[in-house]
Amino acid sequence: MSKENYISREGYKKNIEDTLSILRRNLPKTIVAMIPMWHPRLAIEAEYLIDKHKEECWSREEGIKHLHEVSHQYTEVAYEIQNERKFDSPGFTIVAQGFMDQLSEPVRDVNGAYNKKFYASDLLHMSKYGNAVLALHLWNCMLEPTGKKNQKADLSNDGLAVQCPKQPYPYIRTLGNSLL
Length: 180
Known about the structure:
This is GDSL-like protein. InterPro entries: PLB1 (IPR038885). By secondary structure, the protein is mainly alpha-helical. The protein is 40% helix and 6% strand. The chain has one domain (9-178). The protein has helices at residues 9-26, 41-50, 60-84, 128-142, 175-178, and strands spanning 30-34, 92-96. The protein is globular.
C-alpha cells in the first residue's frame, strides 16, 4: 500500500459507519464484534522471517512504519465508533474486541520459532489453523468486560480453553452491560 493509495482515517470511519448502518437496518438483535486493525508486523514481518528467500520489492521498514501509522488510526476509529454509542440501541450494538491491540511481532510456536502453520501459503493471511486460534481468542474476549479486555492474546497458545459465560454476567459483554 503506497501512501497515496490508503483510505484516510475519515474515509475509513465513514465506510465502517455506513456498513454498521446497513447491518443495524437489516439485522435485529445483533452484537457486532469488531476486531480493530492489528499491527502490520504480524503479517509483513512473518512473511520475511518465515520465507527469507522472497525478494523484497519495497522498503520493508519504511512500509511497516507507514502501515503502522495507518493501522493505528484505523484502530482508534474502532474504539471511537464503539465509545460514541451512535449505534447502541436495545437490539443492536458494537464492541471493539482488542485482543490483538498490543501484539506487534509475528506469531511464534511454543518453542519460540516463527509459526508457519499460523499463516496461509502467501504468509500474509491466516491459515485455517490461524483463524481457528484467532476465533478462540475472539470468543473469550467477547466474554470480558468492555474496557477490561485482554489486549495481548497469546496466539502461540492453541490449547486455550473455551470460556463460557459465568454468573453474575451470563452473556456477551458490551459497553452497556459492562457498566452495570
